[in-house]
Amino acid sequence: GILAGCGGLAALEVVLTRRYSHTVGLLQPTTMSLAVPRLYGSVLLNAVGSAFVMLALSLKVGTSRKSFIEKAKKDGDENAEERFGYPKVYAEGFGKLAKEFNCIQRGHQHAMETYPQMLVCSLVGGLKHPILTSMAQLAWMIARFKFAGGYASGDPQKRMSSKWAGHIWTSLFLVQTLAAST
Description:
The chain is built from six helices and no strands. The longest helix is centred in the N-terminal third of the chain and has 35 residues, at 40-74. It has helices at 2-20, 40-74, 80-84, 96-125, 130-151, 167-181. The chain starts with a helix and ends with a helix. By secondary structure, it is mostly helical. The chain is flat. α2 packs parallel to α5, α4 packs parallel to α6 (167-181) and α5 packs antiparallel against α6.
């Protein structure tokens, strides 16, 4: 499937890089070296883990979309496909089902709004501060699940019901500070 295709592309890149590195300047190794702390692997591991967090949140939206279309049809909504279906990000309307779906979607969208900063600042900040960066990444991942879970209740106020939820910002500000100090 798709994983085999991705693995094949990675292997092809290695082969082509070895074959053409002597003739293509950009493929040649640099003489500059970058010292990476031994614990930087934990930063990379958490970066990969955060991608799975984002995947889990997006899958929650996808499965909820199907479920809400079925619920709305069952409730007699003739426009259920249009209301909850693609390409719309959010469900239209002010009904209970639209609000519940939009809360699930908002938990994912909110994560997407801060994910690029978290990822980039973690990769940079971890070069000098791998322990604090790794801890911040873990806190961010837990906080994201807790925040999205509270939001998915259908009551937007419950997004902050977990003590972890506020650590979205604590961890993000920490990695931004660590990246700036690197």
